[in-house]
Amino acid sequence: MRENTDDNNELETGLNAASLSRIKLRRPKETTASPRKVKSGDITDRLQTLAEELEASKPTSINPEPAFTAEPEAPAKSPARKKTKPRAKPAPKRPASVPVDVAPAPRVVSAVPPRRTNWARPAAASGWQKKRATPDILTYWMEIRDGNRYPSWQNLDTAKIGKYWPNCTLVYCDRAAGRLQLENGFASEIRQAVLAENPHQKYVSDIDFSPMVVDWVLSLARDVANSGKPTHGTEYFPSTFDEIPLRVIALPLSENQIEVDHVLCYIQKLD
User: In this predicted model, what pLDDT tens digit does every residue of 153-166 receive, in sequence order?
Assistant: First the structure.
């Protein structure tokens, strides 16, 4: 009886060992830090590639010293006394015109009832409409470049810029005075282009061009004017409820293909 019990125990032990041999243990995969894949269409990589290309094609006759420096803060001036001007004699008052009662024209009543606005329903589009991708500002810069080292500011199409990138500004690089200034005429043309695109909507920019934002844009434009290469930057600016991240892409423009005379700056609000 004892021998049978021992035989049964040996049989069960053998079956358990066989069943355990069939179980495959899952070993944890080796956690190797793989390098992060960078998107081929990243604006940072594209701007870096363009900067290297412009650096390689840079003429040797260009003065390496920066032509534009940050303007120092002006010292505080003591308040000057205001000069009193002689009072001008008041102009003689014109006699008030006497209003003339004009009889209103008789209103003609039409027998046809007025047609209700939006009477007919718009026809439904057949199938799914594919949303067109908005072109980026760097691709547009490469198009108007037309094989040259730089595009000229005269090649800028304000109608197209106002349609796709209404938050663009143009900075003029005055090398004689060593100063940078915004082109207000360019901003006015962009605003007119936006209004022409949407005549029934009031144009309101989603970016507050505060003095801090303008100084930041001019600092990036100064880097482009000195280096001759594009640049970009991202900063946070205070708003009513929270901070807003803004990004600027600054692209050089030149008429003589040597010195940068204008900088096209695209200000973008990030989500």
Answer: 999 999 999 999 99
Alpha carbons within 13 angstroms on the beta-carbon side of residue 166 total: 15
- The distance of Cα 253 from the centroid of its chain, to the nearest Å, equals 17
Instruction: Calculate ∠ Cα 207-213-218, nearest 5°.
Output: 125
For residue 222, give the nearest of 186, 173, 154 by alpha carbon. Answer: 173
3-state helix, strand, coil in the chain (%, to 5): 30, 15, 55
pLDDT one-digit tens code per residue, 135-159: 899 999 999 998 899 999 999 999 9
Query: Taking phi first (over 0 means left), then psi (-120 to 50 degrees means alpha), and beta for anything else, what does residue 43 get?
Result: alpha
pLDDT over 90, % of the chain? 40
Q: Which residues of 215-224 are buried (b: 16+ CB within 10 A; e: fewer)?
A: ebbbebbbbb
Mean pLDDT by 10 residues, the chain (271 residues): 53 51 46 43 85 85 69 49 52 50 51 44 51 80 93 94 94 94 93 84 79 95 95 91 92 95 95 76
DSSP letter string over 118-135?
A: T-SPPPPPSSPPPPPPPP
Q: Which residue has the tokens 């909507």?
A: 201
* pLDDT per position as a tens digit, 44-72: 899 899 899 988 888 776 655 677 887 65
| Pair of tokens at residue 174 | 């005055």
**Strand ranges in the chain using DSSP code E only, listed in sequence order:** 168-174, 179-182, 231-238, 243-253, 262-269
End-to-end CA, the chain: 82
Residues 237 and 243 sit within 8 Å (Cβ to Cβ): yes
